[in-house]
Every structure is written in C-alpha cells, then in structure tokens.
Design a protein that fits this description.
By secondary structure, the chain is an alpha+beta fold. Helices cover 49% and strands 15% of the residues. The protein has 3 domains: 88 residues, Butyryl-Coa Dehydrogenase, subunit A, domain 1 (Orthogonal Bundle); 108 residues, Beta Barrel (Butyryl-CoA Dehydrogenase, subunit A, domain 2); 144 residues, Butyryl-CoA Dehydrogenase, subunit A, domain 3, CATH 1.20.140.10. The strands form 3 sheets. The protein has a 4-stranded mixed beta sheet. The protein has a 4-stranded antiparallel beta sheet with strand order 2-3-7-6, with no helix packed on it. The structure holds flavin-adenine dinucleotide.
Amino acid sequence: MGFYDNFLTETHRMFRDTATRFAKEEIRPHVDAWEEAGEFPRELYFSAAKAGILGVGFDEEIGGSGGNAMAGVMVIEGLMQGGSAGVCAGLGSLGIALPPIVQSGDQNLIDRFARPALRGETIGALAITEPNTGSDVAAVSTRATLEGDHFVVNGAKLFITSGVRADFLTTLVRTGDDPHGGLSFLVIETNRDGVTTSAPLKKHGWWASDTAEIGFEDVRVPSKNLVGAEGSGFFTLMGNFQNERLALATYGVATAELALNEALRYSQEREAFGRPIKGFQVTRHKLVDMKTRITAVKTLVYQIAHRMEAGEFLVEEVSMAKNLAAELAVDVCFDAVQLHGGMGYMRESLVERLSRDARLLPIGGGTQEVMKEIIAKQMGL
Ligand SMILES: Cc1cc2nc3c(=O)[nH]c(=O)nc-3n(C[C@H](O)[C@H](O)[C@H](O)COP(=O)(O)OP(=O)(O)OC[C@H]3O[C@@H](n4cnc5c(N)ncnc54)[C@H](O)[C@@H]3O)c2cc1C
C-alpha cells in the first residue's frame, strides 16, 4: 500500500488509472507538437468524454463522469502524466465553467450548455478577469442591462482559458451597483453579434491552452441565460474557487513530482568529474528536499480532498494548500532545471516546460497574496 493510499477507494484509483492511460496514449505522443502549435485538437474533449474522465465531478445523470473532489485530484494527477499543464487546463476549463450552471439546477441551461460540453461536443470557459481588474472581483465592470427579455452586455474579459475556441462563456457581469450583490453569472454564446475574440495571447507557459481577450459590444443575451438568481454571482464564485484552487494545488504537486522524476533520472545518467552527478552530496540533498516537500504537500492536498468529499468547506486550508503547492512546484522546477545544467534550459527537456508552466500557479485562480489575505481573514487578523 502506497503512502497516500489510505485516502483512496477503488473508484478513485480507477479514475487515476484511466486518466494516466489516457495521458500516456492520447497526450504524451503529441504533446510537443501541441505545445509548439499553442493548441490541441478539439477532438481531445470528445475522446476524454468517451474515456469517462472529462466530466469528473459532475453527476452521471447530466452526462458527467461522477466522482467528487478526490476523483478530480486523481484525474488531474493522471492527465499531468501527459507532461503539459496547458493541455490539462484547456481540457479542464469546463470544470470551472459548468459548476455555476449545474448548481443553479436550471434544466434549460443544463440541457443547452452542460450536457453538450460534458459530451465533449462544445467548449465552455469561465470569464471573470477583466483588463482593469483580476484580484478585486468586486470591481468587475462588464455590465449587463436588462431590456425586456434580453440583457445587453458591454465590457471585456481578459486571460480567459479556452476563450479563443469557447462556444460559451460563463461570464461574471454587473447587473447592479452593489459591489458584491450587483454581480451575476450570465451564459454568453460566443457566436452572438457583438462578441469579439482575440487571437491566442502569447504566454510564458501553458502554451497548449489557448488564452483570449474577449470584448462585448451591445451583445443581446436572452434573460433565460441568467444563472441562478440575479445578484448571486459573487457568492457562487466564492464556492467555485474552492474546487479551482484544489485543482491548482494538485497541478502543483503533480508538476513537482514530474520534475523530481526527471531530475532523478538525469542525475543518475549524467556524469561530471568521473561520476554520476547524484554522487555529489549536494545533489542528493536537493533530491531529498524535493521529495520531502512533495510528500508533505501531497498529504495535505489528499487530506483536504478527502474532507471536501465528506462535505466540509475548507476555505483556509484550500488557500494554504494552493500556496504551498504553487511554491513547491516553482522551487522544485527551479532545482530540477539546475540539476539538468544547460540541458534544463533546452525546449527538448520536460523540466524546461514544467518550470514555465509552474509559474502560473502562484498567479491563477487567486494570487499568492490574495490567498494570504483570505487566510488572514480566517485567522481573525
Ligand atoms: C494563463 C492564465 C490563465 C487564466 N485563466 C483565466 C480564466 O480562465 N478565467 C478568468 O476569469 N481568469 C483567468 N486568469 C486570470 C487570473 O485569474 C488573474 O490573472 C489573477 O486572478 C490575478 O489577477 P490580475 O492578473 O488582474 O492581477 P492583479 O489583481 O492586478 O494583481 C497584481 C498584483 O497585485 C497583487 N495584489 C492585488 N490585490 C492585492 C491585495 N489585496 N493585497 C496584496 N497584494 C495584492 C497581486 O497579488 C499581484 O501580485 C488567467 C490568468 C493566466 C495568466
């Protein structure tokens, strides 16, 4: 029995095995080309749905794959064996775009948006961030004004994962003036008149996931596309962030594990001064420190997933795990590149990509500083 296995059921292991097999067969052989191209084929959504992993965390009765928080951790861990956080993020954008729709219980929205996305036929993205505001969600200014049975939307969203190819955007819009209570979710189809989508934004990492800026100019959206009650957007989003941050913490651990494996392999193969570089104590200690930190953070992530699955709402712990895992990934990747020497700086090395991809983790889904502010609030500071 592995060190973490006491948290896992047969079903959890099945999710991980399926995702790992999928990553090794469907992603890994093509990943270098997809990274350079800045996208992966749309058919991958369909094959992931067919494999039973695209809809992890969503009920089978609406077309999901079932499972809960720990199953989500398992699928990310498995998919990361493909060697690209960008592919995982692109494939996983429905994991943040659909929960507000599904939780609203609105059958019309579920039929029109959730079911096709879970079948891998359409792409959904979550649109919160704007050119003038990211961390300060209450400053979102994209406005949706009700005119008869339509909202008229004006504004812009920035850095939207899967935004270039998305068929619909679960969009945070301002329907009222109260900073928090004036925010609502509205599903906006991207083929509506007045929606403009940028070319894929060029990024430091996550190359295989497309990222867009999206403009809205007098876009008419039927009022039946409103998700849940008007004014409920901010509070829905706070719930959504829990799963997103657990997912990002899992990316961090999985990234660090991949980097450690690469560093272990290279330090056995590479020789300097007449011996494998693992023969230097400083190298061994580096590898030991990586493994030690990974073990600690992974244990925390599994413990949180296990308790979230039991229904606990762990705001403070999720924020801590997200920060720890992000720092872990950045640090371990730095050391893994260092252990590879010049080869670590080359695009042909997996650690080169991992180190770029890792840098997103302290920024996306709430920055490191914002996580600390959340934790401080929970501590009563
Ligand atoms: C590759 C990528 C993919 C993304 N995907 C999506 C997506 O799919 N959907 C989406 O909506 N967004 C997405 N984002 C946006 C991401 O969530 C934001 O970039 C992030 O929340 C930070 O917002 P910002 O960039 O506006 O930074 P800002 O909020 O402008 O922050 C700038 C700096 O100020 C600091 N700061 C801000 N407020 C405080 C404070 N109160 N105390 C201390 N420091 C503070 C921040 O920590 C940061 O260091 C993505 C971003 C990237 C890079």
